[in-house]
Amino acid sequence: MSLPFDAAATEARVARFWQLSSSFGMERNAYHNYLNEIVSDRYALINGLQILRDELQFAASSPTDIKACGADMSLPSVVTTLAYTNCGDRIHQGEATKRYRDVVASRFATLSEIGELKLEAFFPAGGGTDNGATLAHVTVAHELDEQLKRRIYEGNPQSISLVAIDLKTHVGRLRENGQQVYGKTRESPWREPRAACGAIVGALTHYYPENLIHRRIRGDLGERNFQYLSNHSILTDDGIDITMAVAANIVAIRGIRNTAMALSQEMDERGLAHLTASTTVNRPSRDDLVIYLARATVFNGKVQIQSLGLDAKRYGGKLVDYAGEKRLQLRYGDWDCDNLPIEEHTYKVRESGL
Q1: Which helix (H) or strand (E) holds 18?
Q2: Where are the domains of the chain?
Q3: Which of 34, 81, 197, 347 has the most neighbouring CB atoms within 10 Å?
């Protein structure tokens, strides 16, 4: 029989997590964002727990000698699962195709019994999410079957499950003739410029009401933002048009909010979720950059979200000298991007009955 869940230790880790600083809205290399934002935050939430992410650790009931690999469930433990999204555009390189797996997934995704990473991977056109509720349901449902859940919950009153979700959108970037352009990139230096993200650019410049992708992006942006971004340009202090970057950001932020709220209805009392949102910046012949936009936790009746906002009119920015080039630093009203406000929502915890 399971012992009553002792939430105090996880509550303390979540509280410490929200004391950690985070920097949003700046184009940085993937390693910086993945290590200093996502990985460090995620480890803070499970520090001190035995991490269970290898299928062999669940093999104690196997009739073969492989059962020797089974983990000691009496230790305070955390089972981890990882999901991520991005637009299915083939333009991603470096950041999306390899480094995310190397830096983030290698630490938190489940390993199959033959040693391969098992990620929940979704590639909706335009990035973000096709549907936050579906993403939340699938990710939680695949993590633990009932028999395994019972073994873990009966093992230690502090054991938990961690649902990690990283949502992404993308925007192209070109720098030619001394000008920086967002919303376009090249497949290679000798190819012609083309739209990126094509789905977002298409929805804003050539909206087709029968196109389901255009309709979803319009819904993610919200009608007021859609009308504004379709008819106005958002410029940096330097006069650079960042309209498409702002649109991609809002789609990602909407995705993390919808998914976080949906997770509150999917997880039970031992479920802890950590979500992030970011925009990948595609550059010809170079590794993608990443703009970190938002982070969130869901645990024990409380959803907490820290993010740039959803009002397109409040966005601005400037180009700053960084790592030998001009990088975009976004601005949202008078908010401090190194100390964004944290909002909270409450929900009724669903009991596991175990």
Answers
A1: none
A2: 8-173+251-346
A3: 197
How far from chain centre, in Å, is Cα 212?
A: 23
- Residue that the structure tokens 């650079």 belong to: 240
| DSSP calls for 90-157 | TT--SIIIIIHIIIIIHHHSEEPTTS-EE-EEE--TTSS-S-HHHHHHHHHHHH--HHHHHHHHHH-T
Closest-CA residue to 262 (of 310, 270, 271)? 271
Q: Check residue 236 and give its pLDDT.
A: 96
Q: Which of 172, 169, 321, 340 is nearest to 238 (CA)?
A: 321
Burial grade of 138 (CB within 10 A; 0-12, 13-18, 19 or more): middle
Closest CA to 21 of 44, 1, 3, 46: 44
DSSP secondary structure of 300-314: TTEEEEEE--S-GGG
Report the predicted TM-score, pTM, of the whole model to 2 decimal places. 0.95
Q: 99 and 30 in contact (C-beta within 8 Å)?
A: yes
What pLDDT score was predicted for residue 1?
57
pLDDT at 97: 66
Closest CA to 297 of 255, 264, 269: 264
Give the count of beta carbons closer than 10 Å to the beta carbon of residue 131: 16
Omega prior to 197 cis, within 30 of 0: yes
State the Cα–Cα distance between residues 340 and 306, nearest whole angstrom.
Answer: 6
* Distances 175 to 50, 172, 189, 284, 331 between C-alpha atoms, Å: 47, 10, 11, 10, 21
In angstroms, rounded to a whole number, what is the distance separating the alpha carbons of residues 102 and 79?
20
Q: How far apart are CA 136 and CA 71, in angstroms?
A: 27
Structure tokens at 256: 């993390």
Q: What are 177-219's pLDDT values in tens digits?
A: 888 999 999 998 899 989 989 999 999 999 999 999 999 999 9
The region that residue 163 occupies, defined by phi over 0 for left and psi between -120 and 50 for alpha, beta otherwise, is: beta
Looking from the CA of 48 toward its CB, the CA atoms found within 13 Å total 9
pLDDT less than 70: residues of the chain? 1-2, 95-97
Rounded distance, CA 255 to CA 150, Å? 31
CA distance 9 to 264: 20
